[in-house]
Amino acid sequence: MESKVAVFWFRRDLRLEDNVGLQYALSAGVPVLPVFVFDTDILNLLDDRCDRRVDYICQALGVMHLTLQQHQSSLHTYHGTPVEVFKKITQIYAVHAVYCNRDYEPQAIKRDQAVGAYLQENNIGFYDFKDQVIFDQSEILKNDGSPYTVFTPYASKWKATLTTEHQASLPASFDNFYKTKIKEIHSLAAIGFEKTDVVFQQPNLDLTIIGDYDKHRNFPAHNHTTRLGSALRFGTISIRRCVAFARRHNETWLSELIWREFFMQILYHFPRVVNSCFKTRYNSIVWRNDEAEFQRWCEGRTGYPIVDAGMRQLNETGFMHNRVRMIVASFLCKHLLIDWRWGEAYFAQKLMDYELSSNNGNWQWAAGCGCDAAPYFRIFNPTIQTQKFDKDLQYIKTWNPDYQQRLAAPIVSHEMARERALKAYRDALH
Known about the structure:
Blueprint: E1 2-10, H1 20-26, E2 32-39, H2 40-43, H3 52-69, E3 76-80, H4 82-92, E4 93-101, H5 106-121, E5 125-129, H6 151-161, H7 207-210, H8 213-216, H9 229-234, H10 239-249, H11 251-269, H12 291-299, H13 305-317, H14 322-335, H15 340-350, H16 356-367, H17 382-389, H18 394-399, H19 414-429
Parallel strand pairs: 1-2, 1-4, 2-3, 4-5
């Protein structure tokens, strides 16, 4: 057996700097073996072998691997289920303890419980830390000890609780990584995936975008969003760095970062939202769930130019502007009366920055059934949304250039669809 090590298990924190759990591991007094597991329980659920997210992860790991090599260390990657992988690791190394950063999704919590149980059986410590959020679990609660379910008071408490220490970056240290010859890390092909059009770049906080984020964020043609969703999702940038920057430069972007944590704590405290409406009465809605109409929505063939532009942008790039996400989600749930879970699942397949808590929270918001959701009778009119946010049709012309040839046959009329949706919701709720 090789010498004693502490294992640091990378998951949603694919960076070497400002990484809480990694710094604790490096301070443990034994060399740190940096590990990433290509979890087959997750990968086997992905139908598309050209998944941009897997490619992004591989490229981010490659960057870390090169840096570690400069410090006579190496990233160790594995392909399998986490428990199987840790059984292998503990057969090769004398593992002192395993360190990682916390995750809050129900399946991730089960995974960590299973790994923790195996390690405990073998007298190996398992330590997790808060890293991907400023406040987690039960740090921001109402005065009566219950979780917030409305954003505005949550955000007020969040801001009132924030101190300089909460947003302070941790210094990077490379002194205590396990020294080893260079190891090969898994390629995309080795885990059964194919190259995509993704080119990983180190995430950047761009003042020219964030400084006036509030002025441009609703206009999809402006291309004036941070594009940091994937970096936050996979932890290639630190939330502490983002919050400190937002506090200095733009309150609106800070609010978006707080929304992210709000939805994470909703998922943590109410895991039933994965498959159920937060407002349980809304589970009684009778959805039409027309499969042909759903397919037209997926392909961007609804006859509503801004809806179709959004879906084409998503399908071609793995990204959709946030204002347009709201429009297409409202359209699916209200105009077509298709279950929000269908749309949520489609976004989960396609979005580069897919995150369960935010995706679920925003879809339930659009459908009117979530916590702090838009009221059910708020039904976006795609034509008015276009006039407000894409009046020169720049966004539509970019992603839906043949829109004029297809204007004659919208999938449904707004007026009829609105009345139909209002009736379906009223019937379910009253």
